[in-house]
Amino acid sequence: MKNRFMLAPLTNQQSAPDGAATDYDVDWVRRIALGGYALVQTCAATVQGTGRAFKGQLGIHSDEQLDGLRRMADAIREGGALSAVQLHHAGHRARPELGGVPAPASDDPHAGLTAMTTEQVERLRDDFIRAAQRAQLAGFDGVAVHGAFGFVISEFLSPLLNRRRDRYGSSIENRARLLFEVIDGIRRTCGPQFQIGLRLSVERYGLRIEELRDITAEAFRQAQIDYLDLALWNSAQLVMDGPLAGRTMLSVFADLPRGNVRLGVAGKIRSAQRANEVIEEGADFVLIGRAAILNADFPQRIFTCPEYHAPELPIDVAHLQREGLSPPFINYMRTSWDGFVA
Ligand SMILES: Cc1cc2nc3c(=O)[nH]c(=O)nc-3n(C[C@H](O)[C@H](O)[C@H](O)COP(=O)(O)O)c2cc1C
User: Fold this and answer.
1) Which end of the chain has the smaller Cβ count within 10 Å, N or C?
2) Could you list the residue ranges forming a coiled coil in this record (predicted)?
């Protein structure tokens, strides 16, 4: 990476109904890459067509999507950044009204859902790996495995949501098996030069920070991944209860020996000052989410003016139009992100 700015994965609901990348997708990543980010992650892209959670979600589950993905990879490279596709499956959060089929780790009689069979879990693992191969074929430098926000990999990690009795459930080792098999498979299939990121969140969905710390320690020890992306909503968030209470969530992960694996953090980083604070606390790089929507060239602005701070929210639609956001992206920000658009 040429600097410490990474674009956080940002769903923008601007892909075609079949998951193919549109001109909007290509234009967005091109502007972001030109804006100075060292590495640009795509929005969450489905590794199975049935794993959809969002309208207009990008797909990487079919070879027919390769052309559009190739255009995105080219645009990022031409803009001077490294690239990664975020690999996603919504698990129990897949949305039937969008063609999704909820695929939970455990039975949910209340919602009328039956747990995935062991064979279905193995197929899902293989589809994550196949999607990574597709990303490589399309010319991306790497992939980022979505293990956050209760989506399938995070769901399997959760002792609340994963009550399976096969080798993918019960012990923490079993609950983390899907994650590590996906990472191993990608590394084996795509080779040592292909960059692999892992995104984990530690809040909600019954996730336990002590367990996630142990899983991260193991991922750092195995060194199959290149970076961990800690998906916080506020990078200054403190642990509220349990043995780690009072520490920042970031410090819990930054204090682990990490060898050559890099550590990044997301959450309300909207100025160089805040970026420097998390780097002083032990992060190697920062992920920029909402500030990138406000300014596609947020890093460039900081390089020009180190005191720069992203605009305050809520923002008016005219600003987002001037920034070149597509109509579906603006509509998504208006309807789904309370307090973002005035
Ligand atoms: C509009 C929007 C879309 C997002 N889409 C994704 C996504 O596709 N995958 C993901 O892992 N996180 C997603 N996130 C979370 C961001 O990547 C990031 O972690 C979060 O917004 C905190 O960073 P920020 O305070 O800089 O926005 C999304 C956030 C926003 C605001």
Assistant:
1) C
2) none
Mutate-to-test residue for ligand 1 from 11, 265, 302, highest number of ligand atoms within 8 A of CB: 11
Measured in Å, residue 167 CA sits from the centre of ligand 1 at 31
Query: What number of H helices and E strands is found in the chain?
Result: 13, 9
User: All domains of the chain, ordered by start, with CATH?
Assistant: 5-310 (3.20.20.70)
11 lines ligand 1 (CB under 6 A): yes
From residue 159, how far is each of 19, 106, 205, 276 by CA, in Å? Answer: 32, 11, 9, 35
pLDDT bracket for residue 92 (50, 70, 90): very high
Q: Tell me if 268 CB under 6 Å of ligand 1.
A: yes
Which tens digit of pLDDT belongs to each residue from 148-161?
999 999 999 999 99
Ligand 1 contact via 199 beta carbon (within 6 Å): yes
Dist. CA 34–CA 148, nearest whole Å: 28
Where does residue 312 rank: exposed (0-12), middle (13-18), buried (19+ CB within 10 A)? exposed
pLDDT tens-place string over residues 257-291: 999 999 999 999 999 999 999 999 999 999 999 99
Mutate to test the pocket of ligand 1, among 14, 228, 290 (most ligand atoms within 8 A of CB): 290
Q: What angle do CA 182, 269, 258 make, to 5 degrees?
A: 40
Cβ contact 275:11 at 8 Å: no
Tokens describing residue 183? 């990472």
Strands (DSSP E) found in 49-206: 58-59, 82-88, 142-147, 195-200
- Tens digit of pLDDT for each residue in 299-337? 999 999 999 999 999 999 999 999 999 999 999 999 999
